[in-house]
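[agent] plan:
  1. take the single chain provided in the ticket
  2. run structure prediction with default settings
  3. attach structure tokens to the ticket
  4. add a short note for the reviewer (M.T.)
[agent] executing step 1
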Amino acid sequence: MENKNIRNTKYEIRNTNKAGTALLMTILILNSILLITMASAKLIISSVRESGVQVKSTKAFFAAEAGAERVLYEYRKVVAGSCYTTINTCHFTANLSGGSSYKVDWISGDNNPGSTLTFISAGTFSGLKRSDELNFYY
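[agent] step 2 finished; step 3 output follows
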């Protein structure tokens, strides 16, 4: 009779181990799912932030383009106007709707035929800056 009791005890211990293994496997699977979910969430959040930076950068670029168009308009309107008679003193600045702005600076050149006028147009939006360099051949 003692042998029968020993066998039952071993059987009960084996059943307890199986239940513990199932619990352990469940915890590991749930942790894996949680890890994958957290990594996906981090990836999505960083993508959303990067797209926001891209939008701001694009707005700053178009502000710089607006400044370039302004200097091109002014240059064509009055080639020998007040701004174009003195080197390094020509500055155009404007605040645009939507919070962007531009600043255009005359870098080099003069109004003599055959010379090259160089301007730098810098657009700013929400702390981001983009710039364009413009060259006009007179």
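[agent] step 4 note for reviewer: Residues 2-137 form one domain.
[agent] ticket updated
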